[in-house]
Write the structure tokens for this entry.
Amino acid sequence: MSKIRDILIHVHVEEAMRTRKCSRNKKITIPKGEKCLVVKTGSMNSPKSYSCENARPMLDQAWNKLKKVYESLGLKPPKY
């Protein structure tokens, strides 16, 4: 059996090594040591960091898209 491909290669969570600005709301700072969502949108773009508060709606939207992909393939999405 072949290796399973990782389709979420441009999305990960990391701990901020320094204070960062949230890419969705520049008024929000992500303090050093806090976890944040990091998204790289293209090979030429620098990664964008999002606070946990602002990552939630993005992750919800992504989950809804994934559920639709499951349904389009006739598969039942996993329950969490």
Q: What stands out?
A: The chain has one helix and five strands.
